[in-house]
Amino acid sequence: MDVVGPLERGLAVLRVMSAPGGHRMRPSELARATGLARSTVDRVVATLVHLGHLREIDREVELAPPLMEPGNAYLAGCGIPDALGPVAERLADEFDESVSVAAPDGDGVRFVTQITRRRTMSLAFRIGDLLPAERCAPGPIFAAEWDEAARAAWRARRASPERFPEHFPAVPARPAVEAEEFDRRVAHAAADGWAADDQLIEPGLIAVAVPVRGPSGHTACAVSVVSHTSRHTVASLAEATLPRLREEASAMEAALARVLAERASGGPGAAAGAGAGAGADPARTAKRELGPEFLQSLARGLTVLCALDGTRSLSEVAESTGLARATARRALLTLEHLGYVEHAGRDFRPLPRVLELGYAHLSSLGFAEIVQPHMADLVRRTHESASMAVLDGDDIRYVARVPAYKIMSVDITVGTRLPAYATSMGRVLLAGLPHTQRAARLAGAGPRPITGRTVTDPVELAKIVEGAAEQGHAFVDEELEEGLRSLAVPVRDGAGQVVAALNVATHAARGPVEETLAALLPPLTETASRIEADLRAVTRGRRLRLP
To answer: How far is C-alpha 80 from the chain's CA centre?
Structure first.
């Protein structure tokens, strides 16, 4: 077939960077790891940086949250997290154990939902991690539906044990499970409707799993309850959880069918990605701007992958991406050849393998890891210190900070608390509260003067906070410390709720207030928008965990 070479090579670079220890690399290291020419790697990297999937840090490049877009499209389209996530959370609370949802991926099992109990000995797998079918509870359930071609692929993989770390980097290397033992477990799963993992992944870890069937009648995914031998044996875990898992299986199947029907009809549960770029081909504009360093066909292929938020026809993909049908078709067939897409008749749909493109690493990033690179860039642009804070009672609490190195600088560290009423970040955080909560916070704060310019009158403070809500920013001029000015904007989550505030602090001697606002507000607002985009990508379908 006519493979799109730049797309194939771009995905090869992303796979190398998605492996453990590869999340941040030099282009020279990428050239050695992929076997590609350095000039080719440079063009791939330049294109991926322009698209936002990678970002440059000094002489290295690292995975960036926008790379999660293809994985998020797959997760939205398959319907599993939306349909089963609430049930998994409820079961995890009921059992006080971790609950996982996994989908079949070739001869492996890929996690698509994780509800983890926080303990000293806790589950460390992430959404997107891949396990071998023979070494986990869902594997026998999926293998019970394998055809001969699938079993042949499994045997071929087992015949090359040296490639195990490459295929399953998240799994500790252990002696191979005998084929006869796996066949016995597959037969048990087919007959009894459940399967177990008795320390096959690592010592102490046990699990039981049941299938969840899709509308076609085939197993769409498996729900596992995971525990430790310090709490259960496999027999006691099965006794404690299987009755409820079986009770919930029919409800989960009905929920999955409902979500998929809504996706197909464009109803309330329809995924949001389709059509997002309708009528436009952004790669064409980028090619004109960046010239030969920009790989247009790589950009177009990734755009196609992001557009596959469910089963789509060629016409739908072409329309939603703004690409010619022939261009979209070549990209789809290349993605199918590489194992990221399959098609039946005229329709194409993404496969769980899409999640191997950095999803496990990026979905596990902490809040500070997400915001820190953007704050560092803001400091480079403004030459002023940047901070981020959350509301904590009547105070703000600093959760991230990047200082600007000057002879005179503001000495604040992560964890510092300051009164919300007297700070720019506090005022935008108060402005993000509902009116009743905002009034209660201001009334209970007991404002007191910190400098001669601190506003303490509750009525005046209420007007200032209301103004911050209307304007989208707050400016504090020497109210917290003489000579110190600060400007802050809100940072919102995917639901539009204010969850943090971002600010820059400067000295009053920098110039008039108007000049300070004109110089600092645009880069501050742009940085907050980029942080919000990354937070949406990382937290799609998951709670945002603030420090």
So the answer is: 16
SS (HEC) of 10-79:
HHHHHHHHHCCCCCEECHHHHHHHHCCCHHHHHHHHHHHHHHCCEEEECCEEEECHHHHHHHHHHHHHHC
- Choose the weakest-confidence range: 96-105, 274-283, 349-358, 368-377: 274-283
Burial class (CB in 10 A: 0-12, 13-18, 19+), 99: buried
> Over the stretch 323-349, which tens digit does the pLDDT of each residue have?
999 999 999 999 999 999 999 888 999
pLDDT at 135: 93
C-alpha distances in angstroms, 164 versus 108, 175, 389? 11, 11, 44
CA–CA–CA angle 537, 542, 547 (5° rounding): 90
Contacts of 306 (CB under 8 A, 6+ apart): 69, 70, 73, 273
What gap in Å lies between CA 277 and CA 303, rounded to an integer?
9
Specify which residues 505 forms β-bridges with.
385, 486
Residue found by looking up tokens 């880069």 in the block: 523
**What is the total residue count of the chain?**
547
DSSP alpha helix (H) spans, 266-324:
282-290, 296-307, 314-321
Answer yes or no: are the C-beta atoms of 45 and 30 closer than 8 Å.
yes
DSSP, collapsed to helix, strand or coil, labels residue 401 as: strand
Contact at 8 Å (CB) between 26 and 59? yes
Identify the three-state secondary structure at position 101: strand
Point out which residues pair with 419 in neighbouring strands. 395
CB 299 within 8 A of CB 305: no
The residue written with tokens 């997400």 in the block is: 370
Burial (CB < 10 A; 0-12, 13-18, 19+), residue 286, is middle
| Whether the model pTM is above 0.85 | yes
Closest among 494, 498, 495, 491 to 524, alpha carbons compared: 491
Give the DSSP H or E segment for 502: strand 498-507
Can you name the residues that pair with 396 across neighbouring β-strands?
391, 418
Q: How many CA atoms lie within 13 A of 96 on its CB side?
A: 3
pLDDT tens profile 404-436: 876 445 567 888 999 988 899 999 999 999 988
At 127 the three-state DSSP class reads coil
Q: Which two tokens stand for residue 228?
A: 């430790």
| Nearest one of 437, 484, 485, 492 to 465, comparing CA atoms | 437
CB of 391 closer than 8 Å to CB of 426: yes
pLDDT in tens, 193-244: 999 999 998 899 999 999 999 999 999 999 999 999 999 999 999 999 999 9
CA–CA gap between residue 225 and residue 223 (Å, rounded) = 7
How, if at all, do strands 54-57 and 195-198 pair?
unpaired
CA–CA dist 195, 211 (Å, integer): 9
